Structure formats: structure tokens, C-alpha cells
Amino acid sequence: MAIEIKMPALSPTMEEGTLAKWLVKEGDHIGPGDIMAEIETDKATMEFEAVEEGTLAKIAVSEGTENVKVGTIIAMLAEEGEDAGDVAVPQESAAPAPTPKPAPSPAPAPKPPESSAPSPNPAPTTKNGPSASPTARKLAEANGIDLGQIEGTGPKGKITKGDVEAAMGGGGAASVTGANTPDPERETAPAPVSSGQRIIASPLARRMAEQRGIDLAQVTGSGPNGRIVKADIEGFDTTSAPAPSPAAQAEAPAAPAPREAPDHGAPFEEEKLSNIRKVIARRLTESKQTVPHYYLTIDIRLDPLLDLRKQLNASLEADGIKLSVNDLLIKALARALMRVPQCNVSYHGDTMRRYSRADISVAVAAPSGLITPVIAHADTKGLAQISSEMTELAGKAREGKLMPHEYQGGTASLSNLGMYGIKQFDAVINPPQGMILAVGSGQQQPFVVDGEVRPATVLHASGSFDHRAIDGADGAQLMEAIKSLVENPMGLVV
Questions:
Q1: Could you list the mean pLDDT of each consecutive 10-residue stretch along the chain, which spans 494 residues?
Q2: Helix (H) or strand (E) segment spanning residue 45
Q3: Catalytic pick among 29, 293, 377, 467
Q4: Which of 46, 128, 427, 464 could form a disulfide with 438 if both were Cys (CB 3.0 to 4.6 A apart)?
Q5: How far apart are CA 115 and CA 112, in angstroms?
Q6: DSSP letter at 450?
Q7: Residue 76 and residue 88: Cα distance in Å, rounded?
Q8: Does the active-site annotation cover 467?
Q9: Whether the Cβ atoms of residue 119 and residue 153 lie closer than 8 Å to each other
Q10: pTM to 2 decimals?
């Protein structure tokens, strides 16, 4: 029987993606672990590997197709002894058009109450436990993930590497943030039918409903356990929904109609935004609109750190390691956060998380847009290890090969534009983190050292802080700690 290859969930937040490129063609023999396609998620472009063996009989979704929902059949695999020419794609799983135009449809009938029965699509079990690909099993063992708690999205419910990564919820900082623990209220509660119950909907569905003026209480969710998803909003028939009460009409502001950008006659070329660029735009807009930023700038004498770097590079040359100034600044920020733990926090509505380790997100400019790979445990790692990891992660970021656990999480961020000659700038906080350090280039200028004016290489460092979580005095202590570590850098190697 032919095997259905479905669009995988390659990150915990992924609901749909773009099938960027097929790396195999119809008629090719596929084996477990073979890379079949490149899929663009809301975070990065990632490789999709096969978990079954067979012949690629049909490609159901052509490359370049956007908005392919997770679970959609994208290809069919013929098993051994099966004629690939006889394999057909099920009609109900036809591929979406590159620019879909959904038509309104009646809301589905309400689902019966949930029982204690197991999930309708549990992963099949074998004598070694749930059915999983070798890569998924190895990744789960390495991260302490129970495969019995994961629902597989692969063929016949098989657990794939993407399923394990989604269960990890962001890898690096998962053990700190609690990302590995599902939220029972959010994931298992059915969609409400009365005003007194909590409405369960994806963030994308909520934004779309707000933009279109749709009351989520009138929408029946078709997602897992009644969760309202994007398709429910697109297919919602506003003409059949009951009119909102006068009080609700008074409270809800009218959604502004989208306006086209004026054409002033200057020649231009219109470029469609990638999923990654859309996420960057949304998150940075959210940060500036909802996070009360304040900024603290300090001048730091860089010469002692440059001297130490020169000595360390000379001793590490035989090992093929060359430390950059950025490597030492990553370590300085991490150690400073340990010295001023009240800044190693993140704001979460009615609660605040205080982290016991420093995971530093480092801004990297990639062709697809800005991305922040994470150096986990940066406060305890040596400089050589930080340098090696940063070189590897930056290369993968520029090639679009980062895995979810390599860019999700982080307790604070570092952005360095010194290599472009920028003297000083203020960075935008990466929510839900509480701060980001922005550094420019070292500038030769007069500087007072031990009561005397001397020429020095001066670094202008600027910290952006979330005032909801970090008070000004605490932010000032952190900046002072960074200055002390850079000007007395032996604290970075002990």
C-alpha cells in the first residue's frame, strides 16, 4: 500500500509552510534519512528527511507552493513491489494553490465531549516502543523525551525528527522556560460555546479575527480539541453569525480597512515577503508597541580585552581557533547576567521568570533576514568552545540550516554592528527576553585612565531593557558589570 508523505511540523509554532524546493524527483528511490525537500517555516528554511523506504511515485505539492498546512499530503511513496504508476493522490488532500482564495463555508458541527480515550492518531507501537525513525529515537534519547507522549505526523503515525523537535519546544532554554511541558488549558480545552468560557485559538487566528472584526465566540474550531485555527477564520461566514450585542459593538473598535501604498511615480519592483521576513516584521512591531523600552549607554575601554585576545589567539593558533571580539563579549554579557541576576529575567503577564543560567542569543544577518542562534550555558562555557559554536551556528544561519533548538530560547541577546563601522546604536528587544546589548566599533579617542588623559580604544555599548521586568537601577548595575569584565578581562577566563 502506498505511503502518504505529509507536510511535517518542523517547529512548535508551525501551522503551515512553503515547500521551497524538491531535492528528489518522481521515480527516485528513497531511503530513511534521505533529504527529500527544503521547507520554509515561520522561522527558517529547513531540510525534510524521509522516514520510510520506497519509490517516490507522485509529487502532490509543487515546489514554490505557499501556505501548505501541516498534515497536507505532499507526496506519495510506493512500497517495494508496488507499481508507482498505479499510485494516486487522495482527492481530499489535493495541494493548495500557490495563492489560495478560500471560499466561505458553513461552520462544522460541534464536536462531542472529550472522553478519556487515547488520541485518535497514536503512534503505532513496536517491541521497542512507539514507531519512530532512527533519527527521532536518537534525538529523543539525547534530550530525555518520552516517545510515548508524542503523536507522530509521519506515514502511518510514525514519529519523525520534526515531531521530537516540536515536543522539545526550543531545545536550549527548554529546561529553564518550561517549554517541554504542555499547557493543558491551551492544548486540551475544547472551543467554548458560551461567553463565560475561555476561547482557545492560535495566535494567527486571533490576529486575523481582530483584523476582520470576527467574534471568536461565534467560531467553531476545527483544530485539535476544538482549537480555532487560521482555516476556521478564513472559512467563517459572517452573514450567518448572530449580530453582536450593542455593548460588544461599543467595546470593539472598527477594524481599519487595508490601504494600498500610494504610487508617486518612482519606478519600483514589488517583492513578496518570505515567511521569515513576515515573522521579523510582526515580532519587532510587537516589541516596539508592547514593550516599554529604556536605554542605557556606557563607554568601555577596550584595550585590555584586545590585549588578552591577542595573547589567547597566539596560544590557540595550534588548535586552529581564533577568538573574535564578539566571542569575548558573549562571555562578558553572560558573566554579567550571573553577577546581576535581576536582569536575567523575562516578563510573562502576571509572572516573571528568573533564569539560573545565561543563554545568549546572538544576532546574525542571513540572506533571508535576521536570525538569532543561541549559545546555551554561555556563562559556564570556555571562550574556545563559545568561538567554535558561534562559527558553526553563524554558518548554518547564513545557509538556512539552523534547527529549531539552535535558535529558539535565549535569556538575553547581543547585537554587534562594529564590523560595519557603526559607533553606537540602540537595538530592539527580542520578546519575551528582558534585555539586549548593542555594541558598535572601538574608536580611538582620548580617555581618562588613572587620572591621566591617554589615547584609548573606546567601545560604546548600549543596553535596551524591558521596564516591566527590569528597573533602571538594575539595568545600570548590569552595564557596569559588563564594563568591569571588559576592562578587567581575566574574569572571562577563570
A1: 84 79 89 87 79 87 88 87 78 50 47 44 56 75 72 73 66 35 39 54 75 80 74 73 50 53 79 83 91 96 96 93 96 97 95 96 89 95 96 90 88 95 95 96 90 92 97 98 96 89
A2: strand 45-49
A3: 467
A4: 427
A5: 9
A6: T
A7: 8
A8: yes
A9: no
A10: 0.56
